[in-house]
From TrEMBL:
Organism: Enhygromyxa salina
Domain of life: Bacteria
Signal peptide residues on this chain, from the entry's feature table: 1-20
Classification via SUPFAM superfamilies: Thioredoxin-like
UniProt feature, compositional bias: Acidic residues: 32-72
Residues covered by region (Disordered): 15-85
Protein localization: Secreted
InterPro entries the UniProt entry points to: Thioredoxin-like_sf, TSP3_bac
Annotated keywords: Calcium, Secreted, Signal
Protein name as catalogued: Thioredoxin domain-containing protein
Amino acid sequence: MKTTRLILLSTLLLSPLAGCDGGTDDNGVNEGETDSGDGDGDGDTETETETGEPEPLDDDEDGLTNEEEAELGTDPKKKDTDGDNYWDPWELAEGTDPLDYDSRIYTGFWPYNPNKDELVQGTWATTGKQVGKPFPRQSFLDQHGDYVDVYDFANFTVNQAMTPAFFIFDISAQWCGPCHNVANWIKGVDDANTTWIQELYPTVREKVHSLRIWWVTFIVQDQAGGAPTLADAQSWFTVHKDNYIPILVDETQQVQDTFLGNAFPHFFLLDPTLAIEYFPPPGGGTNEDPYPAVGLVDTLL
């Protein structure tokens, strides 16, 4: 890995990206409620177009005018009428109901990035393990049965530190005992199989649960070593329940074929835009630092 990239990790965390207005739920996703504003500073909430005509009012500044919100039945004073942490226009774009809490973009309350199409788009043909290579844009089945676009997590800043979150991608298999041990450790279990991990990487769990790091687990093999299914993600979630961690199914095993290292479990680090920040070389782990990508989270992030 280039030294300059490692130095930049600390620099990036000192310069938080712009985030959305509003509070957060337990998962840190934006609640999307805001006060109405006075856009032109004249004491009211109307602005004028270049022709002198008043612009349509948008009290909550969510992109829907008050008139449109009246037609939809949504609240013109709230970006997120039903309180499910997804703004009304996002739900309309994705075909969910902005008036129904249970009809939301992701059951797991994962982030949503309306600007993801503007990112550099990784593909399976162009991706790789080299620093700076973008992870492929794809939607993966999660433990709740939703297809999740991984680029919705990009440039996430709604966390305690208000800094752009990096990513640990965890490649695990259903049959792999050490993979299950790591999953237990991340969720907070301290026992004979996990205490040594906590001692080596004492800050990582807190960083994951404060959403400074998104820990994303890819199940790439089932119990027999074949292609995983939704049942594997659901089983994994039942055993290692942690609402902060997306469990994604590598149905085509492209993640495995492209990114698996020498053994399970395998971890690599991505920057806030989902480009490779560090990919461990073969034999890169040591007894003192068996998972060097996780070690970077502990020491640099």
